[in-house]
Amino acid sequence: EKAPAAKQDDPASEKEVINTFQTLRQEASQLFSKINELENEKAEHALVIDAIKDLDPKRKCFRLIGGVLVERTVEEVLPAVQKNRDGLSAVIEKLTQQRDDKVDRVEYLQKKYKIRVRGEEYPEDEENDGEAGKQGVLA
Predict the structure, then answer these.
(1) Which residues 6+ apart lie within 8 Å of 49 measured at CB?
(2) 18: burial class by Cβ within 10 Å (0-12, 13-18, 19+)?
(3) What is the pLDDT of residues 14-23, one digit of tens each?
């Protein structure tokens, strides 16, 4: 299951492990934010589609393109908004895959090097109470 995350070269030193771990966590966090932003934009597109789909195709419709409000008709705007929504879905899917790959890599490094993050629970603490001799890296 963790094979894809393990394929990348493992960092050599403890400092490299921590730097790689922190960089991956930061990148995953940025991807979470970007995905959330795009999901909100996709929801706005869906609202617009729902609002204009039943209107007369020849009716005036205004669309903001590059900061300029342009007058079009519903029949011109609706397909463009649907195409944009579909494009957002594709981008979200790609970013979600990238995020999942980074999260897998972070979890792989966390388990392999027993990395503990300040303020977070370590999932194996309850299981390993009797193994106090194990050392880990604190990030």
Answers:
(1) 78, 81, 82, 85
(2) middle
(3) 899 899 999 9
